[in-house]
Write the structure tokens for this entry.
Amino acid sequence: MKLQGAFSPPGDKSISHRLGLISLLASGRCAVSNFAPGEDCASTLAVFRALGGQVERIDNEVILNGLAGQFAPTAYLDCGNSGTTMRLLMGVLAGAGGEYRLSGDASLSARPMERVAKPLRLMGAQVETTEGKPPVTVRGGDLKGVNYELPVASAQLKSAVLLAGLKAQGVTTVTEPAASRDHTERMLAAWGARLSGQNGVWRITPSSVTLPGAFRVPGDASSAAFFLCAAAIMPGSQVTAEGALLNPTRAGFFTVLERMGVPLEIEPETSEPEPWGTVRAAYGPQLNGCQVEAEEIAGLVDEVPILALVASQAQGTTVFKEVGELRLKETDRLAAVASQLGAMGADIYERGDDLVIQGPTPLSAPKRLDSFGDHRIAMTLRLAGLLAGARPLIQDEECIAISYPGFAETLEGLLA
Ligand code: S3P
């Protein structure tokens, strides 16, 4: 079985979330095309509406009318499965003069929120978590700028502090230990915020932000990764992702695929504020394992499960160094990927917070596999099953709709 042809990944999830959440603070009206179709970004639009925002849908466009910080003084905000919605929203609400209750589904309710609450409290907001987790209550108010060193390379945490900084008196400085995705910085700066930075140090001062009249969301790099990676390990495959995001802070998996010996061609187009273009990947007949360093992880954090599948087909040892953050995603992704690919015959194990894979090993599919309700695990297992020449039952496979509702159709098209 091989994958062949071109596909357009759905609109990028991280950028779509930011469009919805920045619209709470920005003025203007933006016609967004290619808005991410998954359930996660629907959660962001739902909280935007619950706070008084108007969302129109005209043909394939989502029209966002910015609220310029004038939103409902109290609200109950259901963030569904989406950590990005909740964490960035906490930053947005920290500077608003109301009281807000933020909750989520069972998976989100188990995820850490103190890391966001802490800097927001230092800035002057009252934030209560439930033993460090959701539900979270935010009582916003007058904020003052802080100088904050992030304890982890997390774009969600960095974005929450920067969004609060937009409303805080004085300068807010955020320092990150390693480069994480920079969409918030790019979008805020392009749309009028006084934000500057380099080498992982970002400074923001209170400023007004105006949405552009129109914005096209590039294709989601993390969604594209599934088919690009699968092509690399299925003999005879060649796939092309069109209109894919090429932001360097998301492109870590390209570097790792090339290091493993995957034939990859990247043709950038020019576009501001986010670069995008075409990516072509083909079967790599002689893949080799490699080491992925701790400082590279933030740039490919969502791609570790599918890269682990590629590593299972590569000669030698692959080590993902210090990937403990994966334990804090929609499920413990280290345990999930090690147990489920392990059940298929992969030689994969956790060594402290490192993930180690020895390859190559043939895969076979047991009758049942478990996604643990995590969309990226479910897609990884679906493709692993394909490689094994089987269609195992994957528990909660429908969770794929969180980020990639068209995954099955695209897969069918590439198999045809
Ligand atoms: C995201 C950041 C990452 C990533 C998540 C989306 C974002 O999380 O895993 O899927 O849009 O900012 P962390 O910032 O917690 O690493």
Q: What stands out?
A: Residues 14, 17, 84, 154-156, 159, 180-181, 301-302, 325 surround shikimate-3-phosphate (CB under 6 Å).
